[in-house]
Amino acid sequence: MKREIAAFASGAVFSAGLCISGMTQPNRVLSFLDFFGHWDPSLAFVMVGAIAVSALAFRVSARGGQRPLFGGRFRVPAAHERIAPRLVAGSALFGVGWGLSGLCPGPAITSLATGELGPLVFVSAMIGGMSLYRGAASLQKGAAHSDAGHGSRP
Amino acid sequence: MLHLTPFVAPLLGGVLIGLAVAALLLLDGRIAGVSGILGGLVAPEPGESAWRALFLAGLVTGGFLARLVAPRALGGWNASLPLLTLSGLLVGFGTQMAGGCTSGHGVCGVSRLSARSILATATFIAVGAAVVFSVRHAGLP
After folding, report:
1. Is there a single domain that holds both residue A87 and residue A72?
2. Do both A72 and A101 map to the same domain?
3. pLDDT tens across B39-89, in order?
4. Chain A residue at shortest CA distance from B51
């Protein structure tokens, strides 16, 4: 139960951060990506603030013998994972989608709170795209018995 | 002081995002990567769905509360519905293929100085910028 409460609270604080920072305004995100026009660099500070705090947390978690407060283990990807072509190809596809709308997954899901059609259409399509990749990856895996893997390891 | 104000809110918001990442990691050992958390619901594993669904519910709840306080904090999507559909498909497919998005790679991975995540982040920012350039300044598509 406390794991679930922690997840809910983390999500709520996360989206409060997104809303305060301006990440839930796609026009501002597009202006951040507009390096060759009226570039608005302010959203770079979102990453600065977020990375400064989370880097500390990851350092704590990486110390020997540490465990999460609620038990279990830290599910952090291995330090020297191989760089696969799909990492770059996938990031490029994501970049195209991000550049077209100014929406990435966190702000899009947060924006469902508006009840407007735009975010709902985007999130539905995003889930469709995720299902497509998962389906394609598991087909490929079944065919090739490869260890290419899939999923959610950043 | 005035010219600094545009950076204060993003920095403060970023710190909150960092606190959320820290809480999920240090309490439950999880990475707060939104595309990974949602993707894990698309292909569910036993016992792994509740916390994911609740994290996402927390996102929507936070958005709802933020809107009560600051109605204009969310909005301004000018993209048409077909464009939002195409964009959503690409974001969903691409983030699963890459194993992360702005939060999983851009915040969590870069915080760990993961070479994979730094490469992923540089790629999606560069490609995103190229798309914005072609739409806004080169008249494409």
Report:
1. no
2. no
3. 999 988 898 999 999 999 999 999 999 999 998 999 987 789 999 999 999
4. A4
Considering its fold, how many domains does chain B have in total?
A: 1
Q: What is the extent of the structural domain holding B104?
A: 2-136
What digits encode the pLDDT tens for the residues B87-130? 999 999 999 999 999 999 999 999 999 999 999 999 999 999 99
Nearest residue to A124 (alpha-carbon basis) of A107, A133, A106, A112: A112
Q: Which tokens go with B58?
A: 């927390």
Contact A26 B76 (CB under 8 A): yes
List of chain B residues whose C-beta atoms are within 8 Å of the C-beta of residue A138 = 43
Name the strand (E) or helix (H) holding A150.
none
Measured between CA atoms, how close is A90 to chain B, in angstroms?
4
Q: Concatenate the DSSP letters of all residues of B33-87 into one string.
A: -HHHHHHHHHS--TT-SHHHHHHHHHHHHHHHHHHHH-GGGS------HHHHHHH
Residue A68 at interface with chain B, using a CB cutoff of 8 Å: yes
In-domain check, residue B141: no
Tell which of B2, B3, B26, B121 to mutate to test the A interface (max A CBs under 10 Å).
Answer: B26
Establish if B40 belongs to a structural domain.
yes
When divided into structural domains, chain A yields a total of 2
Local confidence pLDDT in tens for the 154 residues of chain A: 899 999 999 999 999 999 999 999 999 999 999 999 989 999 999 999 999 999 999 999 998 788 999 988 999 887 677 889 999 999 999 999 999 999 999 999 999 999 999 999 999 999 999 999 999 888 887 776 544 444 445 5
Q: What is the amino acid identity at position A107?
A: P
Which residue, of A22, A51, A76, is where some domain finishes? A76
Contact A47 B123 (CB under 8 A): no
Q: State whether residue A140 sits within 8 Å of chain B by CB.
A: no
Q: Indicate whether A129 and A148 sit together in one domain.
A: yes
Q: Do A94 and B74 touch (CB under 8 A)?
A: no
